[in-house]
Design brief:
With about 280 residues, this protein is of the alpha/beta class. It is built from nine helices and 14 strands.
């Protein structure tokens, strides 16, 4: 029996997959996502962004499934504005890591996201400022010990070479076993709760929805998408993804992110279902 659009649960990465920070979401992506969901397809995002940044970027696009937010630390339902699941860092271990990193890299930007993804800027630089502006994230500047409990992730922000050196440095250090480091972009290195990521978010959300993983489709572009792409029933890499990500995917789009890769793929699903 040929699948209907209702059979598809599409989870899409945002930055450099669905949109670019400067240009936003291509109009063709907006048009096709709306058509896909109107025809019964189910579409949401799996992203490092917190809920308010997702909301600002999507605008009039309505998600038909809860979102995987903060790289899996939050499952958030925009239809009810509620957190369905929250995973948190070990605060003491994360604090130890932040203090050590700031000593070794004095100009590093440090952000802590807590509770429902609210951003607290512990140490600002041009990269934390651009993060707030590009992703439209409200923030509070405060010292580390004033950040409220319920940390869902920490973001270190700097130029690519500094992030490369920082990533190598943290591999030589031990701050405890309850958290881990994850490179999510050439300019970001994050601290995440152990065992938590986009893939765990996908599995947990499917359990909540009572849906099998085999129905899921993941569209991504970067190394931090590899685990969720491997967990999904089907994986798609956009044309601008690194070679390793393309090789790991079940298929690769013709278009890049800027040219509407997500719209290209979803339109193919629509065409197959309706033909």
């Amino acid at each position: 029996m040929k699948p209907t659009l209702r059979d598809y649960l599409v989870f899409c990465d945002m930055d450099n997959t669905l949109l670019t920070a400067k240009e936003g979401i291509p109009s063709c992506n907006r048009t096709v996502i709306k058509l896909f969901t109107e025809l019964g397809g189910r579409f949401t995002v799996a992203t490092g962004r917190p809920p308010e940044s997702i909301r600002a970027a999507l605008g009039d696009i309505k998600l038909s499934l809860p979102a995987i937010s903060c790289n899996g630390s939050l499952l958030y339902d925009f239809s009810t504005n509620t957190v369905l699941r929250r995973a948190t860092l070990d605060r003491d271990q994360a604090t130890l890591a932040i203090q050590d990193v700031v000593r070794q890299f004095p100009r590093i930007g440090v952000e802590v996201m807590a509770h429902a993804g609210e951003m607290f800027v512990v140490q600002a630089n041009e990269y934390t400022h651009a993060h707030q502006v590009d992703e439209k994230i409200p923030s509070v500047a405060c010292p580390l010990d004033s950040v409220p409990d319920g940390w869902v992730k920490v973001v270190f922000a700097s130029d690519p070479e500094t992030i490369r050196k920082l990533s190598q440095y943290t591999k030589t250090r031990y701050y405890g076993r309850e958290n881990y480091f994850l490179v999510t972009n050439s300019i970001y290195l994050e601290i995440m709760p152990a065992g938590v990521g986009k893939a765990s978010g996908l599995r947990d959300l499917c359990t909540l929805l009572g849906e099998p993983l085999q129905k899921t489709i993941v569209i991504g572009d970067y190394y931090n998408d590899l685990e969720i792409m491997q967990a999904a029933g089907h994986s798609v890499a956009v044309a601008n993804a690194p070679a390793e990500v393309k090789t790991a995917a079940d298929e690769v789009t013709t278009c890049t992110c800027s040219d509407g890769a997500v719209g290209e793929y979803l339109y193919r699903l629509i065409d197959q279902a309706l033909s």
